[in-house]
Amino acid sequence: MGYTIDIDTGGTFTDGFVVRGERVEMVKVPTTPHDLTVCFLDCVKAGADRFGVPIEDLLYETEIIRFSNTIGTNTIIQRDGSKVGLLVTAGRESLAPTRADDGMPPLVLPDMVIGLTEEVSKSGKSIKAPDEQVALSAAQKLIDQGARCLVVAFANSEFNPANERLIRQIIKAEYPRDYLGSVPVFLSSDISRRSGEAERINAAVLNAFIHGKLVRLLYKAGEELRRRLYNRSLFIVHNNGAVARVAKTRAINTYNSGPAAGLLGAQFIGGLYKANNVISIDMGGTSFDAGYVRNGQASYTLNPDVEGLPVNLPMLAIRAIGAGGGSIASIKDRKLQVGPQSAGALPGPVCFDLGGTEPTVTDADLILGVLDPNYFLGGTMKLKLDKAKQVVEEKIAKPLGISVESAALSIRRTVEETMGKQVGKVVKELGDGSNPLMVVYGGAGPTHCCGIAEVAGIKKILITPFSAVFSAFSSSNMDVGHLYTRRLDLPFGTESDLKALLPSLDEMRKEAIKDMRGEGFSSDQMVETLDLFVKGADEKSEIKLSTRADSLQDASQVKNLITKVHDALSGTGKKASSKLLLTTLGLMVQAPVPHYQIRKAPKAAYPVDQARKGNRLVFSENPAEAKQVPVYEWAKLQNGHQIAGPALIESKHTTAIVKRGWTLRIDDYSNAIIEEVG
What is the fold, at CATH topology level, of the domain defined by 3-76+216-254? Predict the structure, then answer.
């Protein structure tokens, strides 16, 4: 049996989840922002070391590597992507993302947008094709002005992409791929077939903007793997819940892929407990991400916001705020503020002793006794308590006229209040009486989960043994797949209406068979899911309903499907219209690859006291008085063990706090269940 490797690159640490048979090894290495392939390979090497084999032996016997990363997200935030030239329908130039409200440079400079005369009707009829010579001159002008890639985004191309494809054909004929001057050309109709012209332009531009950097880094990562004897494909995690080879990955699909994987992992864990409503929270070193599962379905957005730009590319919905272990504390107008700025991996918190100069949440946790300076990351990184105290005293305690312990406690309470309020909003969205299970992960999540839950009004928390590398663990349950969409705007309500979908479905199936063959899978290995994007004829907002692909086969299934859509629309709080419109048809095609299998654990063979490491002085409530708190070794806690708070639970990757008034028990899945007493 070979290895499986799942890697997730975050802003501070890169996490690895390496499995062979029933043996699991989790690793964390510092993220290397200057070149993410460095930390990627460091993570693989750390996994090989844990198994006690050379990296070449590990990779030679590896069946699959899945990789989620922050390359695309960071490129958008830092505005250091490719210079984009944009061709739009004449008169639509104002729809281009040539402005930025956050003070950052726009994705497309105003002089890099050119309108071309062409027309396609909303019925999909090509009324006027663009003039080939004019189009070529426009492309040449953009290239001469420094465009490293071109985007073609014409009005109504979601109904008929012929004019966009003509432009690409013209440019590629002039600049063949085998020429050094070849320029990538991206079509908006390839990126999205949903309504919303400006949103479709944004999606295509974002894809082009981050494409170049992703290509360089991911192909470099693949080449480095091959040099070390890995002889299979590198699979990239997508934000739609599947993975695909680098060659079959569009850049925009990698945006927020790590948090998306984590949400699916929380959905999977919730399913083990038959929990219909789940809230996922991921607190790492740089950010805090929250998502939810309602009635078993992961939160999904049809029109996501990508770093301030609305797009019409459906993806799993994650709510992100700047709050993590590396969040910087500062004083503004004599008030404490924590985040959104982060110290990241480099220079990191001051206690890391890597050059950081600003106080962070991690520094505060160290001062309070929550973290053991000699056991951070299992003792592989020694934390500097004196430096943490010095910076918190100088920049927080003295300006506020309080003790360093009071300042540290205020930092901790402030960040938990911020995150708890965000989670509370998600609880309200789920509705009264939902009683959600909160699945907590990320290196800093267990450290702050009880405080967050108290603010949000949540009574039950679950932490898996893999919480510190949860997004990497989550991708270990993802399959190879692709999502295809077609804009239809067809009536929806009868069997004959659904039969009208079959030609579009057949067309998408042909694309899927071709793509999956390129991934190494035959058509009989494909599992299909239909996504129906439906709205009332007089409504603007849509819902998405997923169903089996064979749901269109007979009248009884069609009737059930129509009833489900009406019920789903009613569940949004809107009065369901008798006349429905199917705006978009989606087809998700997946093929299974090796997954990690969670197994039940036997009952503990010894009392919980044998897992106790000792006591530690912790400032938990009163900054003037530290109290002795019992410390337990997480690896020694087994099925059936129970602990009453206050207590600290330490692993090599994270520290959990069980507050006074809360209890922790280990269940037969080896998960920690933390519940409020009473």
Answer: Nucleotidyltransferase; domain 5 (3.30.420)
Upstream peptide bond of 646 is cis (omega within 30 degrees of 0): yes
**Residue spans of alpha helices (H) in 551-638:** 555-571
Rounded-to-integer distance, Cα 261 and Cα 253, Å: 12
Report the top-level CATH class of 80-213: alpha beta
Using CA atoms, how far residue 167 sits from 86, 155, 181, 334, in Å, is: 12, 14, 17, 58
- Whole-angstrom Cα distance, residue 248 to residue 190? 13
Q: Report the candidate in 464, 417, 418, 423 with the shortest Cα–Cα distance to residue 440.
A: 464
* Contact (CB, 8 A) for 427 and 277: no
Q: Per CATH, which fold does 480-591 belong to?
A: Dna Ligase; domain 1 (3.30.1490)
pLDDT reported for residue 578: 61
- Tell me the per-residue pLDDT of 415-453, one tens digit each, with 9 for 90 and over: 999 999 999 998 988 876 778 999 999 888 999 999 999
pTM listed for this prediction: 0.88
Mutual angle of helices 404-430 and 445-456, in 10-degree steps? 60
User: How many Å apart are CA 162 and CA 148, to the nearest integer?
Assistant: 24
Give the C-alpha distances (Å, rounded to integers) separating 113 from 144, 174, 207: 13, 20, 16
Q: Which residues neighbour 211 within 8 Å (Cβ) at sequence distance 6 or greater?
A: 81, 82, 149, 184, 186, 251
Alpha-carbon distance 501 to 488, whole Å? 8
Q: Please, are residues 548 and 529 in contact by the beta-carbon 8 Å criterion?
A: yes
Specify the pairing of strand 23-30 against strand 13-20.
Answer: antiparallel
CA 459/CA 457 separation, integer angstroms:
7
User: Where do the H-state alpha helices sit in 376-436?
Assistant: 385-392, 398-400, 404-430
